Amino acid sequence: MNHPVDRPLTAIHRILDANLDRAREGLRIVEEWCRFGLNDASLTAECKDLRQHLAQWHTADLRAARDTPGDPGTDLTHTAEMERPSLGALLQANLCRVQEALRVLEEYGKLDRPEMAAACKQLRYRVYALDSQLMGRSHDGRMHKLRRSPLYLVTSPHEHLLPIVEAALQGGLSLVQYRDKTAEDPTRLQLAEKLCHLCRRYDALFLVNDRVDIALAVDADGVHLGQQDIPIALARQILGPSRIIGRSTTNPDEMQRALSEGADYIGVGPVYETPTKAGKAAAGLDYVRYAAAHSPIPWFAIGGIDAENLGDVIAAGATQVAVVRAIMQAQQPTQATQALLTKLGAGA
């Protein structure tokens, strides 16, 4: 085996220099969104720390090996690099860029700088974790979770709200909406913040009913709007492009309006009469069948659904349902959640 000094060190140094640049640039692009788009101090600090760790290895001798005019790669491009279809695609492309660069640094670093190689291996694992956290907070990541959430808990006021929600999360729930029409704003804000932190711990989505301001204040994953709430376009302007916006619908016309306004998902119901929507006539299973045949976006059957009638709702075409009392008033919320998820899984 040849000693490292016998290898073409200039070429190796050029590779290391190029990939250090590539990794640091990609991290900076991600960092800017964490800082200005998400206003997330923790993710911003992680990106900055990763960049600074890489900077210490970007030494003068590596920079001196750079030969930009003689680099045949500067003229190479791909059509996919010319545009980004979404913010999620932009972030994912740059996270992949960082991960690939770190892998190159790890492998080529073994030939000349084993300490740097070992450091880049550990940094790569940190970037994987950053990828998971960040993509979970992007619109694409949130929508992926939404589509994979068969059960949606809409809360109702309860003195044991937090323990009930946590019990449901322990049962496998992955989507929660905080709904309280009567509490004072300070109470709503405090509970929403606690619920948001709780959902983060269990890697579940957290949405706020009606109140775009509270959703923004607690960094919720999105908001659910009723027919009498603000336009979706205005909510999107306030919340930004990365959060989920849902809309309640009770008939095909309201569904079409929600679709034209750009809703990310819709509620379909009330399927059965429910005290949550006192005085509102049930939309019935016919509307569930209509949604199953016509909705191009995720939709949740909602309204009076419980373990007893869930089979009929599934038979009508629902694969995702939202419940209130079936969990909030259950003696054992964890077991109730598991039972509902089992039925939904069997139906799917």
Question: Could you give the topology of this structure?
Answer:
Elements (H helix, E strand, L loop, with lengths): L8 H29 L3 H15 L4 H5 L22 H26 L1 H24 L1 H9 L3 E4 L6 H10 L4 E4 L6 H17 L3 E5 L2 H6 L4 E4 L6 H8 L4 E6 L2 H10 L3 E4 L15 H11 L4 E4 L7 H6 L5 E3 L1 H4 L4 H15 L1
Parallel strand pairs: 1-2, 1-8, 2-3, 3-4, 4-5, 5-6, 6-7, 7-8
Relevant terms:
single chain; 348 residues; alpha/beta; Ferritin; TIM Barrel; 2 domains; eight-stranded parallel barrel; 15 helices; 10% strand; elongated; magnesium; ThiD2; transferase; Aldolase_TIM; magnesium ion binding
What does this structure look like?
With 348 residues, the chain is α/β, with parallel strands linked by helices. Helix content is 56%, strand content 10%. It contains 15 helices and eight strands. The chain has an eight-stranded parallel beta barrel, surrounded by six helices. Helix 10 links the parallel strand 4 and strand 5 (244-249). The protein is elongated and about 80 Å long.
Percent strand: 5-15%
Total domain count: 2
Largest sheet: 8 strands, parallel, barrel
CATH architecture annotation of the largest domain? Alpha-Beta Barrel
CATH superfamily of the largest domain: Aldolase class I
Which strand order do you get reading across the main beta sheet?
A: 1-2-3-4-5-6-7-8
**DSSP helical segment count:** 15
The Rg value, from CA coordinates, equals 25 Å
The SSE order reads: HHHHHHEHEHEHEHEHEHEHEHH
State the end-to-end CA separation.
58 Å
Give start-end ranges of low-pLDDT stretches.
Answer: 1-6
Portion of residues within helices: 55-70%
Structural class: alpha/beta
Shape: elongated
